[in-house]
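Appendix B, record 7
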Amino acid sequence: MRSEIKSSLFILGLFLLLAVPAVAIDVVEDHQDIEGPFADGPSVTATCLECHEDEAHDFMKTSHWTWMPMQEVIDQGEIALGKKNTMNNFCVGLSSNWARCTSCHAGYGWVDDSFDFSNPENIDCLVCHDQTGLYKKFPDGAGHPVYEYTEWENQIWEPLDLAGIARSVGKASRSTCGSCHFFGGQGNNVKHGDMDLSLTNPSRKLDVHMSKEGQDFDCIECHDTTDHLIVGNSMFDSPGGHNHLDCTTCHDDDPHAKRILNWHGKSIACQTCHIPTIAREYPTMVWWDWTTAGTNLENVKDKNGKETFNNEKGSFRWEKNLMPTFLWYNGTSTHYMVGSAMTSDQVTHLNKPQGTRLDPKSKIHPFKVMRGKQAYDKVNRILVITKLHGPTGLWQNGFDWDEAITEGMAAEGLEYSGEYGFAETESWWKINHMVAPKEDAIKCVACHDSDIGGRLDWKALGYTGDPSKNRGVSRFQLTDAYRDVNVE
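Structure tokens (predicted):
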């Protein structure tokens, strides 16, 4: 996968060089007198703070900075929970892997648990506000770019003109947001399924909101921002429904001309019909098996040219043009807390959308389901954090799992028994992007073509069968719903 990540990063940089004009539209004129030169990123931030100290302190209150917002979590009450202290089934967890994971933190120098979140000079302003498309954080640099010529995976990274980039700053764009969010899980579209490089300049058929032939929205058009607080958080990191964003923020509750479609909208999320498939341009990962890491299996490329094995990371499965999985969702989800008990012969749900057919707050939503196998403590019966990066990490210590787990768990402050195994896990990722134009929304027969359900598993959703054929099981009165069902 490293070669794919490197290739993806190169494609992103090349694409941005071609796509971004020489003088960016959103450049702020009064930044043109910034002189430099700057020795490093924090030196740029120190200049920003001369005028933007209040903005810095606003930013330091947000989850983009803390990676751990306060929120209500099922069975936990109000706690601080986010990327900083959750566990996933990609590269597992932050603790002991700070320098690599925090290359997507909007800060500089988060190399261990002593990082000073109270120091505004640690903020990276450029990663969100660069307009040149040239700014890149070094993959293993704890949020820093390179300041001298540096080799990484047979590629030379060149030092940046930080003063020139600082003079370019403007509003966040699809490119700046995507530099992190498109690459979650250490590769293009590895994690989310509905966010990848194709959204930098999508066709109308791919995303009607972001396409230049559609609405030509940047991310912040929907993810409205006040005092650096951005509306919308990932369901995985915000299981309590904290700061979520919905279509009805912009669209009416009853946006359709036909009553039957508006009636469906009482039970079905907009995304269910308007995002027919995800990963339409680039495949997304659906399976990651850590048990084969270090076994030197043959890397056979799949039908889309993706790696099915990487010696550092194990075995993978990918899907392109993937139909989501559908569940009732009321805005909350369960969440596996690091250190919680699990059962090794059952699938551990790292999160799970909550809701039922009889819950009036629930609607049927689309999700990407990510599955895999990861390490756990056989004696304590908990999933473990594994140190992957650095000289004593799994990738450089000769694949000594015991040593890597010992360091990872120590960094997390958890006991490790010394006995490990591998167990299957599952995580759910809510789908919101890649909204197709209305003419490509799914049609009635896609769900109602048979008792089997077509796209929907009716019995799994709590129905006895297709509700269009089993009257009396619907959640709402049908008054006038079918009056204009056949009207064009």
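Remarks on this record: Residues 1-25 have pLDDT under 50 and may be disordered. The chain has twelve helices and 16 strands.
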